[in-house]
Amino acid sequence: MRSAIIGFAAGIGWLQIQASLPAPSLICFLFAAALLAALSARALKRPALKIPFLFACGAMLGFAWAALFAQHYLARELPKELEGQDVTVIGTIDSLPYRFERGVRFNFAVEQATARDGVVPVLPSRLALSWYSDFRAEDMQAVGDVQPGERWQFTVRLRRPHGNANPYGFDYEAWLLEQNLRATGTVRSDENAILKNRRLDEFVVSFSNIVERCRSRLRDRIFAALPDKEYAGVIVALVVGDQREISQW
Questions:
Q1: pTM of the model as a whole
Q2: Of 32, 34, 69, 164, which is least packed with CB atoms within 10 Å of its CB?
Q3: Strand locations in 42-171, DSSP E?
Q4: How far is CA 175 from CA 26, 92, 117, 152, 162, in A?
Q5: Which of 31-40, 46-55, 177-186, 197-206 has the highest mean pLDDT?
Q6: Can you tell me whether residue 31 is helix, strand or coil?
Q7: Do 184 and 215 meet the contact criterion of CB atoms below 8 Å apart?
Q8: Containing H/E element for 185?
């Protein structure tokens, strides 16, 4: 069994260094080959002879299992035809909002979506959204006070996830995949929106929303107790795990 477990981990690692995902036919072949290796190991009586078969079985299963998961999550990416298009979405704030000088960033769990022509598009379940103040307007548009667990209606312009390919730099695209965020986008100003951006419900009860709301309240209380303190962001990171307020300089 240890050989199979080690082989399973090695198979997952093997997939990580591939330039592209295997074809579905190869995945099916690996599952069949793994079954054959397992049956062969069971038929052998000497434990020493079973080790290579169990390792090969685990490696093929690990490789195929990781490939299936990768294909599943990559397939949930924003369709190309919706990139750059305005879409109205209804859903909940799914993370701690990060406020900065020009606006706020947050994750959004999609419940409903409607395109400008009335067609119901298929969107990823979670989006990474940014809501900026509109500096082009005569009166700067206020950004909504979004809180975790609230249900909002937004008009957003989306794009497929991508990041800069800088050697040894932060891999933003890989991070989005890890967080199951398969599209990024910006909230459109009300003057350009299909429907007005507005809060629909103060709180939607779910376990994750309760956790995120508690984290948000605790973070706000820490900042209120430590106003203008450089180490406040460090305290928040240690208490609620939000590292975004730690200065990079």
A1: 0.78
A2: 164
A3: 86-93, 98-100, 103-115, 126-132, 151-159
A4: 27, 21, 33, 25, 10
A5: 197-206
A6: helix
A7: no
A8: strand 184-187
